[in-house]
Amino acid sequence: MVIKTAEFVKSSQKWQDCPEPTMAEYAFIGRSNVGKSSLINAMMNHKDLAKTSQTPGKTQLINHFLVNENWFLTDLPGYGYAKVSKSLRKDFEKLITNYILNRQNLVNLFVLIDSRLTPQKIDLEFMQWCGESNVPFSIVFTKVDKLKPGAADRNVEAYKKELLNTWEDLPEIYVTSAEKKTGTDNILKFISETNQF
Ligand code: GTP
Ligand code: MG
């Protein structure tokens, strides 16, 4: 897919405030600092469409972008950020889960996982919740440029093994680097193939 236009639409504090659900929507989710906003920028060939930061917890609202005047791309706040209070963390979780469960035009959720880490409980639990809630999702491993060749594959295999303990089928898996712009074309291909709105 060629990106002709990518524009910021709005930031929303809750799903009820999101733009009218008139087009297909694809959302990026994952732990704080995993690289959601960076990957969105890499996919859109844009340096700072979505705000990024070295400090976790940068994205705190639901951010909508309109791509090619034809579909929405959504940057969500990260989950599991330890440095905020428990009640604020609960608020974020509620915001995210309500958005996911209520957003009618959401076609697919991309769950981002840091390719440097062995399977993490919080990510496995989140994917388990997606499966149980019938939320369509794909897995996107990030920051693969930070690893030696082969090391990411081992972590990907470890995740697959964990998921196959519970599920018969595996979701689509993408291995990416926002830094080197690897894997982004495959995500865009998936989006163009599933955007039937
Ligand atoms: P929150 O909005 O806080 O939840 O974070 P986020 O998931 O949007 O992460 P963000 O895109 O802001 O990136 C976090 C940090 O990781 C930044 O310092 C990025 O430069 C860095 N980063 C993101 N993707 C990559 C990547 O592919 N390679 C490398 N080397 N660094 C990356
Ligand atoms: Mg962000």
Report on the architecture of this protein.
By secondary structure, the protein is an alpha/beta fold. It has a single domain (6-194), classed as Rossmann fold. Helix content is 31%, strand content 22%. It contains five helices and seven strands. The chain has helices at 36-43, 86-102, 121-132, 151-164, 184-194; strands at residues 6-12, 24-30, 62-67, 71-75, 106-114, 137-142, 173-175. It has a seven-stranded mixed sheet with strand order 1-3-4-2-5-6-7, sandwiched between helices. Helix 3 (121-132) links the parallel strand 5 and strand 6 (137-142). The longest helix is centred in the middle third of the chain and has 17 residues, at 86-102. The mean pLDDT is 92. Bound molecules: guanosine-5'-triphosphate (GTP) and magnesium ion. The site of magnesium ion has 5 residues, from helix 1.
